[in-house]
Amino acid sequence: NALNKQMEATDVQVDQLRDQLRKCHISTPIAGTVLEKYVEKGEFVATGKPLFKMADTKNMFIRAYVTSAQLKDIKVGQQAKVFADYGDGQKKEYEGTVSWISSKSEFTPKTILTDDERADLVYALKVAIKNDGYVKIGMYGEVKF
Questions:
Q1: Are 34 and 62 found together in one domain?
Q2: Which domain, by its residues, includes 81?
Q3: What pTM value is reported for the model?
Q4: pLDDT, tens digit, for every residue of 34-89?
Q5: Are 35 and 81 members of one domain?
Q6: Are residues 38 and 83 in the same domain?
Q7: Can you tell me the distance from the alpha carbon of 113 to that of 65, in angstroms, rounded to the nearest whole number?
Q8: Are residues 76 and 139 in the same domain?
Q9: CB contact at 8 A, 97 and 127
């Protein structure tokens, strides 16, 4: 009888250890590229704390800005040409699709130039592209409709 109780206690310990191991499993909700590492090997972390900043670099988007005059001719799902700027005048063309359009206007960001010589108010939009591995996060580009 004492041996059975000891086996039951050991089974409980084994279940607890399996549960702890299951909680040690690291998973990511997306397949992608590690952009930043928040913790070091051997460091203790709380459950749910992010360990890495990840990005899906196969499917990327360019954030563009259009004036209200241009906006009337653009809709979600519309095809566009995206020209990634590699510097030194080198550009590569990608087929894109408008995936989002802001519902409100904003002041033109300082780093953005529009055809209308920096319009006061613009609408942000995103154009999704398939990345062939050459487009990097933060690159400049141009969108044509």
A1: no
A2: 57-144
A3: 0.69
A4: 999 999 988 988 888 899 999 989 999 999 999 889 999 999 999 999 999 988 88
A5: no
A6: no
A7: 9
A8: yes
A9: yes
